[in-house]
Specification:
Elements (H helix, E strand, L loop, with lengths): L8 H16 L3 E7 L4 E6 L3 E10 L2 E11 H4 L2 H20 L3 H32 L12 H8 L1 H10 L1 H5 L2 H16 L7 H6 L3 E4 L4 H22 L1 H5 L3 H7 L6 H14 L8 H15 L6 H14 L1 H15 L13 H17 L5 H13 L6 H15 L12
Antiparallel strand pairs: 1-2, 2-3, 3-4, 4-5
Helix pairs in contact: 1-10, 3-4, 5-18, 6-19, 8-17, 8-19, 12-13, 14-15, 17-18
């Protein structure tokens, strides 16, 4: 299938966000990606921005050089103004000293800072738009419903122990137990905090170990998030992609060769099929500015963009159909869906069945029924805390179900 062959760079960064989230015990979201300099920024639901460098090596994603600051610091107008003042002072001092070579550098820095100030308001808006969809969808462990569930854990464990036969005869409970056991093994990650992350030489994400389970559980959410990221920052994410760069180099090639190369691009980066004209033109222009020694006119770039835009329409229709039929994703109404949302729905089934089995048990029935309703609308890494709860209850109750084969 086309989407299964896609470039996994964004998937890997989303996986890194989830593994970092699991370790920090707070939800992170990929905020920006600079594929040229291999840096990424993750936005935390607790209003922090985590920046780092990344590279893929030996089937592992290596994150290093962590920098962490609050959102307020990240978008601080005073901080930018202070930096501009320092740059102006440096520029003036260079002129006074007749160090024109140094002044040239300082002036370039100064222009860049003024541009940063002009885009600061847009940055604030981007952060608000990134954080807003997470609000209310990822908070689980601090909810009163989960707190009640924690309080009655001995009662839940005891009920499961005393009703093993009923549990083992219920296919929904068995499947939930298998998933819980498998995820518990795949997502056992040492806890860290901001200080230890700053001091860490590396944070390693194994792209092979548990990957099939991760992508199986989070398949729909990953594709939705990748589509949103591609739409939000297409040129910065994919500008270093070799196939897109190769396509850009064919601006004066024959149409047949262009179409063939375009097909290769869409196979590697399916989101190219959804890119509007302005974003295609932007990424082409950026590539030519960096890589081309020849002067390519705006007119030629515009004509090449129009050719690509028209040529990709059949692929767009085909991928739209696949996304709708196979993944339940409507690209015309694409919304942020937290990772592990489908796991939350599975957990909802577990607690719903538990409430039905314990209909004569009062507290267990009431609390599990209410939590089933709440968790069904949630997502994010805190669902893994719920998974830990389920796994712990089942283990303490003596219900041991091997979870590697989730389809049995």
């Amino acid at each position: 299938m086309l989407l299964e062959k896609r470039n996994k760079d964004l998937t890997n960064l989303h996986k890194a966000a989830d593994y970092l989230s699991r370790s920090l015990r707070e939800n992170l979201r990929v905020f920006s990606v600079d594929s040229v300099n291999k840096t990424a920024e993750f936005l935390s639901e607790k209003n922090s921005v985590i920046s780092c460098a990344y590279e893929v090596k030996d089937s592992k994603l290596l994150l290093r050089d962590f920098s962490i600051q609050s959102v307020d610091e990240f978008v601080s107008a005073d901080k930018v103004e202070g930096t501009i003042k320092e740059a102006i002072d440096s520029f003036v001092d260079s002129l006074r000293e007749n160090r024109y070579d140094k002044a040239d550098v300082s002036f370039d820095d100064l222009i860049g800072l003024f541009e940063s100030r002009n885009t600061m308001k847009g940055l604030e808006t981007k952060i608000e738009k990134s954080l807003d969809p997470m609000t209310g969808k990822t908070e689980i462990t601090e909810s009163k419903e989960f707190q009640k569930l924690e309080e009655i854990k001995p009662l839940v464990t005891n009920f499961l122990r005393e009703n093993q036969k009923a549990v083992l005869e219920n296919s929904d409970m068995i499947n939930s137990a298998k998933i819980s056991n498998a995820i518990n093994k795949a997502f056992t990650i040492n806890r860290c905090d901001y200080d230890s992350l700053r001091d860490a030489d590396l944070f390693v994400v194994d792209l092979c170990d548990g990957q099939s389970l991760y992508e199986m559980v989070c398949h729909q959410e990953l594709i939705s998030q990748e589509l949103l990221d591609a739409k939000r920052s297409f040129s910065t994410v994919w500008i270093s992609n070799e196939k897109i760069q190769n396509l850009a180099s064919m601006i004066y090639a024959k149409e047949e060769a262009i179409i063939e190369t375009l097909s290769e691009v869409i196979e590697d980066v399916p989101y190219f099929a959804f890119a509007p004209k302005n974003e295609i033109q932007e990424i082409l222009t950026s590539i030519y500015e960096v890589n081309s020694n020849d002067l390519i006119s705006k007119k030629d770039i515009k004509e090449f963009t129009s050719l690509l835009f028209e040529a990709k329409k059949p692929a767009k229709e085909s991928i739209t159909e696949v996304l709708n039929e196979n993944y339940g994703i409507n690209v015309t109404n694409l919304k942020f869906v937290p990772t592990f949302s489908n796991l939350a729905k599975t957990q909802s089934v577990f607690f719903e069945v538990l409430s039905l089995l314990s209909k004569d048990e009062g507290v267990v029935h009431d609390v599990s029924k209410e939590f089933a309703r709440v968790i069904s609308k949630k997502g994010g890494v805190e669902t893994l805390e719920v998974n830990d709860y389920i796994h712990s209850c089942l283990t303490e109750a003596g219900i041991d179900i091997v979870g590697e084969n989730l389809t049995s």
